[in-house]
Amino acid sequence: MIGPGVHYHGPTDPRLDRLCAILAASGALVMSPFLPSYMKLIVDPKAISDFSRLFDGFTARPELPPGMKPRVFSISFGSLVAIHLAAQRRDAVGGLVLFGGYGNWDATMDYCLTGRIDGKQHGESDPLNQAVVFGNMVHKMDGCPKEREPLYRAWHKFCRKTWGRDELKRGRGYVPVAQDIARELAPELRRWFLIGCGVEPGNYDLCKAAIEKAGSEGDYLHAENYLEQVECPVTLVHGIDDDVIPYVESQRMYESLRNRVPARLFLTGLYGHSGGAGGASPVALAREIAGLAGILASIAP
Question: Which class is 2-104+222-299 in CATH?
Answer without folding.
Answer: alpha beta
